[in-house]
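@channel sequence for tomorrow's demo:
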Amino acid sequence: MPDSRPQQPPSSSSGSSSGRADGSALLLCGARLTDGRTVDVRLGGGRIEAVGTAGSLSMHTTRVDLAGYLLLPAPAEPHAHADTALSADGDGPIPYDDQDVQRRTTEAALLHLGHGATALRSHVRIGDVQGLGALAAVLQARRALRGLAELTAVAMPRVLTGLAGAEELAMLRDAVKMGASVVGGCPDLDPDPTGYVETVLEVASEHGCPVDLHTDGDDPARLARLAALTGGLRPRVTLSPCGGLGRLPSEVASRAADQLAAAGVTVVCLPQGGCSGVDRRGTAPVRLLRAAGVRVVAGSGALRDVTNPVGRGDPLEAAYLLASRYGLQPEDAYDAVSSSARAALGLPEVRVEAGFPAELLAVRGDRLAGALSLAYSRIVVHQGRVVVRTNAVREFCGSAAAVALDLPRQGRVGEPS
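C-alpha cells (generated this afternoon):
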C-alpha cells in the first residue's frame, strides 16, 4: 500500500508559470530525455497526457521552456528524520515543542523538495518525554504541505518489550490511528530485539501498514531471524541503514544478503552519512546486496542534526555517491533515488510517457552522468505543476583569458545571475 493517499494541490490562477493540476494543461517544451530524444511533454490533471517530438504539441496553454534540461522521473526520499532536522546549531537537547518540530519538519521537507524529492518518508520518535507530540506536529506539517509534497510519518517507539514496552506499544497503536501510515523503530536498542520486531509486525498486520526498521546490520544471526520473520509479508519490510553489513566477512555478508533477498526485504542505504536512529556509520555494501537480488534504494538520513551537521538531503548527491564511490552506473544510481525509491514507498511508477503521474525533475544538462555531477539548476514538478525552481549561473568575470577561451556558463544567456 502507498504511504499516503494522493493529495490534491490548491488551485492556481490561470497564466501562472507554475501550471495547474485542476485539469488545465501545462506544456514542457524542448526537454531532453535520457535516450537522447528532445520532446515536448503535455501535463494535465496531475498526469502526463502526451509526449511528442519538439514542436509537435504546440497549443494555447502555459509553457515551460526546458531547452538545455534533462527531464527525469522525480526522486523520492525514503529515509529522513524531519523531527530532528536542522537542529545541529542548537545548544543542549533538541527542542521538541510542537511549533519547533512543525517548523523544522516543514523547512526540511521543502529543502528535500527543492532538490527534487516530491515524496518524503520521515521517521518520527514516539514515547519518552515527547510522547505523541512530535508525531502530531509532523502530521500538522504534512497537512500544511498539501499540494507541494507528500510527507509520510513512520512511528518509532524506543522499546516495545517487557513492562517498559507496554506503554509504548499502546502509544504505537495510537500513532497509527492518528495518521502514522508506517510502523518501525530500532530493534537493536530494545533488550529483546526479536520481540521488538515481532511486536511491530503484529501492529503492522493489524492495521495493514508497511514496516520500516533501523538496524546497523552487524549481527548476522539477528538479520537471519529478521529475514525469517518477515519473509513473504505484504506490504514488505524496509531496513536501513545496514552499514554494519559492510564490516562483516564477505562470506557472512553474502549469506545475509541472500537471506534478505529471499525474504523480499528492501534495504535503504545512506551514502551521505548516518541517521539519528543508529549510532554507527558506514554505507551498506550496495553491490553485494544488488548482486544477491536485494532491492537497494538510497536515502539522505540526517539533515543537519548532531548525527550529520552538514547533511544536505539531496537525492542527486546520494546518486552521485553511489556512482562515484560504489561503482554503480549513473542510470542505476539514479534509479535508486527515483523509481526504486518510489516502489519502496508503495508509490505509483513514473516514466516520461503518456498516462504516468506527472512527478518530474528537470535538471540542467544533456546526459545523466553530467546532471549527477553538476546538478545546480533544477525545476520540480509535482502533481502536474511546477512547485520549485532553482536557477544557478556561473560566470568567469574580470579575466581576459575567460573571454578568449569562451569558458562555459552554468545557465543560458539572458538568465539572471
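heads up for whoever presents: Confidence is low (pLDDT under 50) at residues 1-23, 412-417.
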